[in-house]
Specification:
344 residues; alpha/beta; 9-stranded parallel sheet; 11 helices
């Protein structure tokens, strides 16, 4: 096959959830938005449901369909972007729980689905989603009387444990919510690692489930192997790829690999990324193009049939660092062209 091959370890995913859950004394939900960070929401949801997860977060109502089909009627599926215009039928039909972010959303939800479950999000300083202080003061009493399933907020800098924004947001969240009886949630993966002061009644890990930072103890979940489709010999001085951007300084064995930026291999990886044959690194040379990359395999003792791009020797965050980005972007950009195998 000329497509890359993605291996997803569901046992490692489950172990990561158990490890994060063990750090808390509250309910631990799971964030599986963006097709479970690119790994397949249906399979991921089923694996986590077997561990006891009963609350799942998605980004938008459309994402809830695959999750509902995977986990059945008993699980709660919460929609972080809230109750958008046109989503009413889907929210009702799939029994989704919108997390309401604005007064308009609150009014829309109460008018269209007055007896349907909902949650509320507050803005504690990130200025992205959620009710600001004055809006919350205006609607809190009436909204809380309808018994939301959660009142939540989101930390902007939880991946930096010493950042002053963390205690600032924690204090604002206390000021906005202390005294209410509704379950509260502030911590995603980074918030869990900040300690019990941030845990409240529910935590909702995302990236840590999939083997990403800031959860340094996470087990790797993803492996990506890319097939070699051609090998050639270069003499010193020959050039490779668009723009003649790399020139061989020695006789070189060059492998052409079937993957490119159409598959989520960011073009910025042209600046010195590595692929691996076992534990042996092989430098990517020349530019990343749409469907192909070229790799120097001169130092290998054998001709490889494939090379690993994400593996134990190069976890997703190491690769992301090479690209000047974060593991989230690498995972969510994984191509639907890759063949997939679930293990564990």
């Amino acid at each position: 096959m000329s497509t890359g091959h993605l291996t997803i370890d569901l046992a490692a995913l489950a172990a990561n959830w158990r490890s994060l859950n063990a750090l808390t004394s509250c309910e631990t939900a799971a964030v599986i938005k963006a097709d479970a960070y690119g790994l397949g929401a249906d399979r991921v949801a089923k694996a986590l449901a077997k561990q006891g997860v009963r609350t799942f977060y998605v980004a938008m109502a459309e994402e809830g369909a695959a999750v509902r089909a995977a986990v059945g009627d008993k699980a709660q599926i919460r929609v972080l972007t809230g109750h958008m215009r046109g989503d009413t039928d889907m929210i009702a039909d799939l029994n989704l729980t919108p997390i309401l972010n604005t007064i308009d959303q609150i009014n829309r939800h109460f008018e269209a689905l007055p007896d349907h479950s909902f949650g509320l999000q507050l803005d504690t300083g990130m200025n992205r989603l959620g009710l600001e202080w004055d809006d919350w003061a205006a609607v809190a009493e009436a909204a809380l009387r309808r018994k939301p399933v959660v009142v939540m907020s989101h930390l902007a800098c939880a991946d930096e444990p010493d950042h002053p924004m963390n205690p600032y947001q924690l204090d604002i969240f206390h000021q906005m919510t202390d005294g209410i009886t509704t379950p509260r949630s502030l911590a995603a993966t980074g918030g869990i690692l900040l300690g019990p002061d941030y845990h409240f009644d529910e935590c909702r890990p995302g990236i840590g489930l999939y083997g990403g930072l800031p959860f340094e103890d996470a087990r790797p979940v993803v492996r990506l192997d890319l097939p070699v489709i051609q090998l050639r010999e270069l003499t010193a001085g020959e050039v490779v790829g668009y723009g003649n951007s790399w020139q061989a300084e020695r006789p070189t064995r060059l492998a052409t690999i079937a993957a490119g930026y159409a598959d989520g291999l960011l073009r910025s990886l042209s600046r010195g990324a590595m692929l691996y044959h076992g534990d042996t690194p092989c430098p990517l040379v020349g530019r990343v193009s749409m469907d192909l990359i070229t790799v120097d395999v001169t130092d290998l003792n054998e001709d490889p049939a494939a090379l690993a791009f994400i593996c134990d020797a190069q976890p997703v965050d190491s690769l992301a660092q090479s690209a000047g980005t974060i593991g989230y972007e690498m995972l969510t950009g994984l191509s639907p062209r890759y063949s997939r195998r679930y293990v564990g």
